[in-house]
């Protein structure tokens, strides 16, 4: 699509994000909700929706809901309640899902993302449905039927609904990434899009630029990564603009993103709220949330990603470095320990953003998968600061430290890597280098002073990088006159 055509339209995006809360047991039942158990092994009568059973609310779910709401700048009303949302589907044995309709646990929040405020309408608690395993998947290849696994049924979810405040796929991606960071840092959700512990429905519409009325939205499901989210939105924008340009009308519907064919296709017409016949869940009392309870949780709020970024930047990190580190929670926690041990942030960040990140990327590892400890990195940094080794030697040995966990001092000793600051020793090497390159010497003497770098390089090479670069510079200048 031409950019001129695109520019005629304004894009409106609102996201509904489901975060699977990391509780030990389900929202209304004692079954475990860990992933990977044998199908249908975590299925108490409550989960199966047997007649006569009663749901019991898991307090930890409420704690996590409040914690997330506070992290998203939401109000936590003193009262919330649960409702039944009726629909028929084979993965929903009860024939209804317990959710929250008009009195959710969190309301009126927002996130500030790259200088722009994105409103959060609400966040409500609900139970997940089971999982259908269709023909061809999971070892039932060629079969003409689907299997149902109800282990996931009753897993607690927090659905976080944004205002239609985003105006591009990039803004939507940034919002989603920040949400993922937040739920990870506060420990309520793994935030893994690929594995589905965090799921995102993107609502998208287009309208002519300058218009005040939003266009009809389509809801896109099945986006399993941040890049897929962005691709799906881009595709959908083009599709809708084309429809409007041809004089057609966008229909309100749910569409599925297919990341292989890179297109969305219609799944079903969008239900309206009244189709679900919501009514208050008669088996659960409305929930009163005291201000003391909220305060107790507020007091336990860990440092949020935005605060972490700001703290790193106040230590002298660039915005880019701070964001990259915060994006990888394991690395950020590692960095925090390094800082706590008193290392210079700037030297530490050079290693982290340089050799450490390169190695992790290459080996597809997390920092915690390596043998590098914060203590060992701090020791390495102190060896450099004491001039025992050069920065270059440090860069050479850090990878070995990640591989086998050997402390820097031991590697330096075993391999004789300590820096030569003894001017006599450096002078000998410098003298030899100068004698071996008479033509460069005369060029230097005739004014080609940038050749100093060449001589320094040669001395460093001869000493295998161990000579103190400052001393080498001074000695060479002296010899060359
Ligand atoms: P439903 O469950 O029916 O999808 P919700 O209220 O839970 O309804 O979610 C609607 C989502 O769609 C919200 O994130 C909202 O911001 C977004 N939205 C509403 N209207 C539009 C629109 N015209 N264009 C894009 N997004 C919209
Ligand atoms: Mg929806």
Largest beta sheet: strand ordering: 5-6-9-1-10-11-12-13
Distance between the termini: 66 Å
What proportion of the residues is helical, as a percent range?
40-55%
The overall strand count is 15
Average pLDDT reading: 93
Rg from Cα: 30 Å
Kindly estimate the percentage of residues that lie in beta strands according to DSSP: 15-25%
Overall structural domain count: 3
General description of the model:
With 481 residues, this protein is an alpha+beta fold. The chain has three domains: 3-296, no CATH class; 303-415, no CATH class; 423-480, Arc Repressor Mutant, subunit A (Orthogonal Bundle). It is 41% helix and 19% strand. The protein is built from 17 helices and 15 strands. It has helices spanning 3-7, 45-48, 59-71, 169-185, 226-245, 291-299, 305-314, 319-327, 329-340, 345-363, 374-385, 391-404, 408-415, 423-436, 438-445, 452-462, 469-480, and strands at 9-20, 79-80, 83-86, 96-99, 106-113, 116-127, 131-133, 147-149, 156-162, 198-208, 218-223, 253-258, 263-269, 279-280, 287-288. An eight-stranded mixed β-sheet has the order 5-6-9-1-10-11-12-13. A three-stranded antiparallel β-sheet has the order 4-3-14, with no helix packed on it. Strand 5 (106-113) and strand 6 (116-127) form a beta hairpin. Helix 14 (423-436) packs across helix 17 and helix 16 (452-462) crosses helix 17 (469-480). The longest helix has 20 residues, at 226-245. The protein is elongated, with a radius of gyration of 30 Å. The structure holds adenosine-5'-diphosphate (ADP) and magnesium ion. Residues 12-16, 161-164, 203-205, 214, 217, 219 line the site of adenosine-5'-diphosphate.
């Amino acid at each position: 699509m031409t950019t001129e055509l695109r520019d005629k339209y304004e894009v409106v995006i609102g996201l509904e994000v489901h975060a699977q809360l990391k509780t030990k047991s389900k929202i209304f039942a004692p079954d475990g909700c860990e992933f990977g158990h044998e199908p249908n092994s975590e299925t108490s009568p409550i989960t199966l929706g047997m007649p006569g059973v009663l749901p019991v609310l898991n307090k930890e779910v409420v704690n996590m809901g409040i914690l997330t709401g506070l992290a998203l700048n939401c109000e936590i009303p003193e009262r919330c309640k649960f409702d039944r949302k009726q629909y028929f589907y084979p993965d929903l044995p009860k024939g209804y899902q317990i959710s929250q309709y008009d009195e959710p646990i969190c309301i009126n929040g927002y996130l500030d993302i790259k200088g722009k405020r994105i409103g959060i309408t609400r966040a409500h608690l609900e139970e997940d449905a089971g999982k259908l395993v269709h023909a061809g998947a999971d070892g039932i290849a060629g079969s003409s039927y689907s299997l149902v696994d109800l282990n996931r049924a009753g897993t607690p979810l927090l659905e976080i609904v944004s205002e239609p405040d985003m105006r591009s796929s990039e803004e939507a991606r940034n919002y989603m990434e920040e949400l993922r960071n937040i739920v990870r840092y506060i420990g309520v959700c793994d935030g893994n899009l690929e594995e589905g512990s965090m799921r995102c429905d993107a609502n998208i519409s287009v309208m002519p630029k300058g218009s005040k009325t939003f266009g009809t939205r389509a809801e896109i499901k099945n986006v399993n990564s941040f890049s897929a989210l962005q691709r799906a939105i881009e595709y959908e924008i083009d599709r809708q603009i084309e429809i409007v340009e041809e004089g057609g009308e966008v229909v309100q519907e749910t569409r599925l993103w297919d990341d292989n064919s890179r297109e969305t296709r219609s799944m079903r017409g969008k239900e309206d709220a009244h189709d679900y016949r919501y009514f208050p869940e008669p088996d659960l009392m409305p929930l009163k949330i005291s201000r003391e309870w909220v305060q107790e949780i507020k007091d336990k709020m860990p440092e949020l990603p935005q605060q972490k970024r700001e703290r790193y930047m106040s230590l002298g990190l660039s915005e880019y470095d701070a964001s990259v580190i915060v994006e990888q929670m394991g690395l950020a926690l590692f960095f925090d320990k390094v800082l706590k041990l008193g290392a210079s942030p700037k030297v530490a960040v050079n290693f982290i953003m340089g050799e450490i990140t390169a190695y992790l990327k290459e080996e597809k590892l997390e920092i915690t998968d390596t043998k590098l400890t914060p203590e060992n990195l701090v020791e390495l940094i102190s060896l450099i600061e004491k001039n025992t080794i050069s920065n270059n030697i440090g860069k050479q040995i850090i990878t070995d430290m990640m591989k086998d966990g050997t402390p820097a001092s031991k590697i330096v000793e075993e391999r004789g890597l300590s820096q030569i600051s003894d001017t006599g020793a450096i002078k000998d090497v410098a003298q030899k280098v100068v004698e071996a390159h008479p033509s460069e010497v005369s060029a230097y003497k005739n004014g080609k002073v940038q050749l100093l770098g060449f001589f320094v390089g040669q001395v460093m090479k001869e000493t295998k990088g161990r000579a103190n670069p400052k001393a080498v510079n001074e000695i060479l200048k002296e010899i060359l006159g």
